[in-house]
Amino acid sequence: MSIKYTQDKAASAEILRLILQKMAGHPAAFNPPTYAVWYEFLAGINPQLTEAMNKLLGDKGLLTTEMAQHFFDLYISEGNPQAQAAFRQNMQKLLDNLATFAESTGSETDRFSAGLQKYGETLNKGVDAPSLKNLVGEIMQDTQSMRSSVESLQGKLYESKEEVEKLQHELQNARNEALSDPMTGVFNRRGFDAQMKKLVANPDLKDKRVCFMMLDIDFFKKVNDTYGHLFGDKVIRGVAAALTARVKGQDSVARMGGEEFAVILPDTPMQGAYALAEQIRQNIANSKIRRSEKQDVVEGITISIGIADCEIGGDWADALSRADEALYVSKTQGRNRTTLYAVAK
User: Fold this and answer.
1) Is-above-0.90 flag for pTM?
2) Residues taking part in catalysis
3) What are the beta bridge partners of residue 261?
């Protein structure tokens, strides 16, 4: 299970100081949900919460106790088990309603069938013209009633189809959140594993190879010590954004923990992966990151990269380990460089 709060004692203490400043200016009670909302907002680890808070604060709104609880329930509380339970409950309710409605329609069908049989028996006995006219009127009335019942069932089925699609979408969103790193929005380790299983099961990739790019941020502890942990988190998000901007198709990015990332490159040759890695490395090395509380920018952030590959259905955990070995070579040989495992020994 991925760890949601990765900040150490110094970083969390800095966030606590900021929280106390912010909470003093808002009417929300000093309770755990309010603290959690401010913590995840100021730590920048919850994109959806950040968007909601920025909208509230941007409109010069104040965080009330009720709003803090609402944000906590909506964006922070562990929602995946509850989402699945809610999906099951809502589906059961939907099916129960459909069953009741179908039973009602079934009763109407039985009544209509019995009526037709009765009308048939009456006709076999012979009727005069006035009675026949009345009989036709009754048949038309029953037919219209039956048509209305069928149309109502069709409408109910259409509404139910839309509701099921909505529930499926909500459940899929909950599953996606479980596979994503909350700080960066890329896959977490669980998402990495799920993506690899998906690629292995893809028949179009059978007998193909997959390259793995392992990388981490050089001297990241120094970055934290010099500029603060909040800026360090911003650097992590910047690297994730740079990686995401460069991948395409079935390529994937995952944050494996701390400042370490992995990139999955299916059906990509080693030299192609090396060329992409160099583009990413140079792009990050040439980037500037603005400090949020000041106007100055920070330069000189670099990454080291290691690359290895294997067959798509092979031992990709071993290939990932070899990419990590190549990454270690890059770091021991001066950092800010890319190493292929084939030449890492």
Assistant:
1) no
2) 259
3) 215, 255
